[in-house]
Amino acid sequence: MSTALTDLITDDHVIIHKHVATWQQAIAAVAQPLLADGAITTAYIDSMIDAVDRFGPYIVLSPHLVLAHARPEAGVVRQAMSVMTLADPVNFNHPENDPVDIVFCLAAVDDDSHLKALREFVAIAGDRPKQERLIAAKTVDEFQRILRQED
C-alpha cells in the first residue's frame, strides 16, 4: 500500500525558516531529518548534490520550489520526505525559477513510488498561493495545517 505524500511529511520532517547560504547547504539541511531517522544514508545527500552538479538545476520544478531527490539505490533505506522553508531565498542557478524559498526532499524506494510522489507533488508545485502560505508559516503545526489544507 502506498503512502500519500502529505503522510510522509511528519512533524519531525519539517524545518521552518532555515538560514543557508548555498543550494548545496539547502539540500544537505533539508535531508537532515531523513538522515536522523535512518530513512537515508549520507551517500544519498552526496548523490543529490552530485546530480545537480552533473545535470543542472533540474530539481527546481517550478518557480521558487525544489524537489531534491536522487536514485533509490544511492542511499534510500525507506520511503520518506522532508521539507524546509528558507529564511532567505537561495539561487539554484535555474534560468527561470530562482530564487528558491521552499525545498522538499524525497527518498523514494523505487521508480513507482517516485513517480507517484511526483504526481502528487504537481499539485503543490502549481499552487503558488499555497506555497506562499507554507513559506509564511511560523510553526510546524501551522505548516502542516496548510499542507493538508486544514486551514
TrEMBL record:
Every PTS EIIA type-2 domain range: 7-150
Gene3D superfamilies: Mannitol-specific EII, Chain A
GO CC annotation terms, alphabetical: cytoplasm
Domain of life the protein comes from: Bacteria
Gene Ontology molecular function, alphabetical: kinase activity
InterPro entries documented for this protein: Ascorbate-PTS_EIIA_comp (IPR051351), PTrfase/Anion_transptr (IPR016152), PTS_EIIA_type-2_dom (IPR002178)
CDD domains in UniProt: PTS_IIA_fru (cd00211)
Annotated signal peptide: none
Location (main, coarse): cytoplasm
Function comment: The phosphoenolpyruvate-dependent sugar phosphotransferase system (sugar PTS), a major carbohydrate active transport system, catalyzes the phosphorylation of incoming sugar substrates concomitantly with their translocation across the cell membrane. The enzyme II UlaABC PTS system is involved in ascorbate transport.
Name used for this protein in its record: Ascorbate-specific PTS system EIIA component
Species the sequence originates in: Actinomyces succiniciruminis
